[in-house]
Design brief:
With 222 residues, this protein is of the alpha/beta class. It has eight helices and ten strands. Bound molecules: NADP nicotinamide-adenine-dinucleotide phosphate.
């Protein structure tokens, strides 16, 4: 199990929510931002929201996105779809071989009446892998609902993982499993990220049509 993990764009909904859980398992959870001040404020907010877990403070490290990439071998990208590839382009020179970048980004957009998959030639994860050919890119976490995770509640959910190598999956699975009761499921090569990213549109639409609050995925086996 690695001792450090970094969140690029860790000040947002899913970044802070993952940080709450990672802080229970990793020695250091780096919360990255374009603004170090915003990162510091996010850490203070997380601590303020859970006074009964004072020790969490020792594990949360506010930093710039640049410093996070330089500090951590294992990274999660948690920025909006519209900003994902530009963010990676801006940071590209700072990555080094053997780093793992897990994209939680869902390439979806809102049409006039519903959410749909963005349907670009490449999924976000594949585009990122193209920009960063020397590092390992994976896709995961898209279907976890940030508000429930942030509240600290345990969530019985599955997380599909797409990546190209067995070793990469082993690393991602360890990180996903660090969140109690969240189960990683290997969904296929990075090419399958397109399907994983698109699932978010299905979840959001069914949430709206069937009044489901914070839906997530759990695969049943009979
Ligand atoms: N919300 C969920 O439940 C959820 C669950 C799973 C996956 N996801 C995926 O995770 C990603 C983040 O979702 P979110 O809801 O956490 O988003 P968010 O709160 O809107 O944004 C996350 C962070 O991204 C950074 N950011 C915003 N605009 C940016 C820009 N133009 N350039 C660079 N950085 C920018 C901001 O950090 P700074 O201002 O501090 O730099 C912001 O705090 C999305 O791609 C989403 O599909 C979301």
């Amino acid at each position: 199990m690695p001792t450090k993990i970094g969140l690029i764009g860790g000040t947002g909904d899913i970044g802070s929510a993952l940080a709450v859980h990672f802080a229970k398992k990793f020695d250091a959870v780096f919360i990255g931002s374009r603004s170090e001040e915003k990162a510091r404020n996010t850490v203070e907010e997380i601590i303020r929201d859970r006074p009964e877990e004072a020790e969490i403070r020792n594990h949360l490290k506010p930093e710039s996105n640049e410093a996070v990439v330089q500090a951590c071998e294992n990274l999660v990208l948690t920025v909006p779809y519209s900003a994902a590839t530009d963010t990676v382009k801006d940071l590209a020179g700072l990555f080094s071989e053997n780093q793992l970048l897990i994209s939680a980004v869902a390439a979806i957009k809102k049409s006039s009446k519903e959410f749909v998959a963005a349907n670009e030639a490449l999924s976000v994860s594949e585009s990122i892998q193209k920009l960063l050919p020397r590092i390992k890119v994976a896709s995961a976490f898209q279907t976890l609902p940030a508000p429930i995770l942030y509240s600290g509640r345990e969530i019985d959910a599955d997380v599909f993982v797409a990546c190209d190598e067995r070793d990469t999956y082993t690393r991602v699975a360890e990180i996903v499993s660090s969140i109690r009761r969240v189960r990683p499921l290997y969904a296929g090569s990075l090419e399958l990220s397109r399907e994983i990213e698109g699932l978010t549109a299905l979840l959001l639409n069914s949430a709206q049509s069937s009044r489901l609050k914070n839906p997530t995925l759990k695969i049943l086996s009979f």
